[in-house]
């Protein structure tokens, strides 16, 4: 099962086949205006007009209208519902990066929270400059994504973190920071290995130049 969540207003659409397309608030309207087969629309829809809401409803999508006064963000509800209905799904998220910084940081760290950490490996966020993946404790081998020169790591409760087979390796005993930016793969076909004993690590593949997200690889 492949699910695409449109969590905002992306610049373009990844070129893959999806079993389900979920639009979050204005992301649902973006899907309708771009002639996508929207399956589910989730949100309090405070960022769309009454006329635009009618367009979303008339698209035939299953609409989950939320109370604007709530403890969860619209994206969190969409992600939670998607995993509840399809716990083994691979979920790609677009439109979640950029814009308001508080929203962006919430979107990035959401998969590391206890509610989602067991599903973190199934979730990927992307835009034209970045691909974000999540890794659970243990030994993880990471392949380079075409066009993405750099890779950085953010530790979230990750102990004994180490990096092997990278331009800048790191031994667990030398671990002094929560963030390690601007690392690189040794070669296109070489895999970087990260190892840690607890928590989650966010891996950020990035490029200085804007990439065509249609060309970006799968999980």
UniProtKB/TrEMBL annotation:
InterPro entries the UniProt entry points to: Thi_PPkinase, Thiamin_PyroPKinase_B1-bd, TPK, TPK_catalytic, TPK_catalytic_sf
DNA repair as UniProt keyword: no
EC id: 2.7.6.2
Molecular functions per Gene Ontology: ATP binding; kinase activity; thiamine binding; thiamine diphosphokinase activity
Alphabetical keyword list: ATP-binding, Kinase, Nucleotide-binding, Transferase
Signal peptide: none
Pfam families with a match to the protein in the record: TPK_B1_binding, TPK_catalytic
Protein name: Thiamine diphosphokinase
Source species of the chain: Lactovum miscens
């Amino acid at each position: 099962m492949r699910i695409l969540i449109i969590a905002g207003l992306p610049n373009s659409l990844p070129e893959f086949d999806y079993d389900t397309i979920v639009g979050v608030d204005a992301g649902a309207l973006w899907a309708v205006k771009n002639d996508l087969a929207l399956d589910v629309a989730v949100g309090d829809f405070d960022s769309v007009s009454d006329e635009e809401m009618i367009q979303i409803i008339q698209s035939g999508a299953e609409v989950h209208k939320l109370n604007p006064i709530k403890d969860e963000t619209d994206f969190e509800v969409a992600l939670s519902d998607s995993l509840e209905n399809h716990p083994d799904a691979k979920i790609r998220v677009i439109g979640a990066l950029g814009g308001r910084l508080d929203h962006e940081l919430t979107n990035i760290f959401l998969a590391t929270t206890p509610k989602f950490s067991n599903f973190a490996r199934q979730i990927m966020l992307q835009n034209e400059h970045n691909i974000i993946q999540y890794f659970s404790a243990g030994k993880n081998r990471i392949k380079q994504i075409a066009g993405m020169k750099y890779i950085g790591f953010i530790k979230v409760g990750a102990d004994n973190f180490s990096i092997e087979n990278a331009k800048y390796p790191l031994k667990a005993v030398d671990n002094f920071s929560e963030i390690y930016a601007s690392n690189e793969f040794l070669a296109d076909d070489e895999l970087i290995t990260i190892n840690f004993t607890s928590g989650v690590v966010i891996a950020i593949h990035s490029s200085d130049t804007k990439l065509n997200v249609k060309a970006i690889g799968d999980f």
